[in-house]
User: Fold this.
Amino acid sequence: MQHSLRAAALSWLRCQAPQSFAMHTSASCWHQPKFLRQPWKLRCFRQAMQACGCAKLGRNGPPSMHHMSEVDFRHVHAKSAAAQAPTVQKEAQAESSASSELQLYNTMGRRKQVFTPRQDQGQNISMYVCGVTVYDWAHIGHARVYISFDVLHRYLKHLGYDVQYVRNFTDIDDKIIARAKQSKEDPLSLSRRFIVEFHKDMEALGCLPPTLEPKATDHVPDMVATIQQIIANEHGYAVDGDVFFDVASLPGYGRLSGRAQEDNRAGERVALDGRKRNPSDFALWKSAKPGEPTWDSPWGPGRPGWHIECSAMIRRLMGPVIDIHGGGFDLIFPHHENEIAQSQACACDHDKRQMDNNGTDFVRFWLHNGFVNVDSEKMSKSLGNFFTIRDVTAQYHPLVLRWFLLNTQYRQAINYSQPALDEAAERLYYIYQTLLDTSKALKAAGSQGEQAQQEAADDFQDSKGEVGAVLQQVHHGMCDDLNTPLALAALSAPLKAMNDLLSTKKGKKAKGRLHTLAQYQLALQETFRLLGMQVTDPQKQLDQMRQLALSRANMTEEDVAAAIDKRAEARQAKDYSKADAVRAELSKKGIAIMDTAEGVEWRPTTPEL
Assistant:
């Protein structure tokens, strides 16, 4: 919706009033069109005005603005979207490659690079993503990470690769031990309980299960062996039952993050310790403390440090070199920097011959997703703006959260807010309703509908027709470093065309109606499958979204039905102001009343403020 609004705004502004807007950047008076009274719509429009050269925008604008109705707005958009939509995404498309090759932004190289598998691996791809520390409910920041890499997992499979996707669980850690003490629970029992809940969240969000999900506690012997090799290669040292990594022994430390060794002293989970050779040295093994889980080791009982688990599990399960390593931006330093150091430090000559960059890189592509901010502030428990996945899915369909996250490219920061979720819910409802209405129309057409669907399937196989054209745009977006907003933008024109055709049963448009409906239906379905959005039962998704909309509005179906009856009575009595008031009151609660040929219906919408 935001992309189409902004495209329409640009179209109208550029076609109708380019000079007017240059002259009236601080006009003294204007009447804001009614359809722009929703804050998010106005925000999109203001962005478009700024794009047209308006440097300063407040409540003022050109006097002629009040002449434009929503009908005008949509009409101009429909006529010029094809010509003007590229303007909206000019910056993104300037960086895009028309190539069909997959390009990914490599944090190590700080640029996009064409992704190809290692020559000796054929179509086999190895991908490791750092998992959660299981001491609490997963939050929306976790959702961002694992949806982003689920999309990459799906797209690599779509391209024909055989993907070994490994995502770990940190099931023993200082945070787990502290939480277990608070809840008077065994640390390992606590972590097992939250692993179960995490899996439920991932399933609800539509994430495919990884190939392997190793737990740190199952690989302690591998960690001990890795630490022993690091010590043998003179990159680690033991002190009083603890083992530390000697950061100064690796001159290349800091290549990934660009940060100096001394920065590590303030890094997460790194404590100042006078026994260290250097304040930036980090723990590989921690000696036992009373009441904590421990394992035997050559240095005495204790438990592994945080960073060593990923290095050891990757070596054990995936080998000395992997294709892709992912996680959030917050893991670049110190975690991933320390992983690189450990893996380089324990590598033998045979391992180094397989590594890139003269035996120093055990990962070919480092990928990192952006942060989730809440109302433009960093999400934090201390600020009281911390939301778990369960908090969100209690109010919105899980696929609404997925859709919301996919509308921002994975490397960019994203601002979470309830209005933004409302907008995502409205857009997704519109898409599922379109898919459902199209299915009904094709089914009602009998054999003609079946023939249209078969022709669409044939065109899909041959990458022809409308379905081929749409999917080509989708794939160009995906090949541009998983630019999901660009991929989703390719669906805007087909969705509008489908709804136009659903209401067209006579005239020139009706002749190829079923053909075009079937083509666009398949294009939408394939795109949704590619992005992990459920498409097999639109009615089920719509029903669930309606129930959640009622819950947010604190209403029942009966309440809405009563309001509709009240409005009908007012209309019958020609008391139109009262009828409008009923409709407006429902709209404030996120319930839109629709007058259709079949009668009055309602659907979820963005609540009007």
User: Anything to note?
Assistant: Residues 1-35, 37-41, 49-98 have pLDDT under 50 and may be disordered.
